[in-house]
Amino acid sequence: MQAFTSYELAGTAIFALILVFIAYRIIRSMPKMAGNIAAFRRRTLVWTQVALVLTVLQLNFKAGDWRFAIILGLIVLFTGSIWWAARSYDLRRPAEPEPDTSAPKSE
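^ that's the sequence the OP posted. Answer follows.
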């Protein structure tokens, strides 16, 4: 296994900081999202699963080199954190009131 150079560590740290900033912006904008948060949750869950599968495949087929696996792992954490935040937001959000069907409709 090769040792990481300082440039690789700095690049990984910069990439992680960029992902943290993007995730923070997305999570903070969730209350303003128009539309259904459930669809957003499904999309982020799919991307989390795709990134996780790619990470596991890369770890299995590229023995001894962790560089790309670390980047894929950061993407798994990024998409997973957004999915988790969307799920938490959806669970905390008050339920939408159902339309009252007992009152007669005026036509």
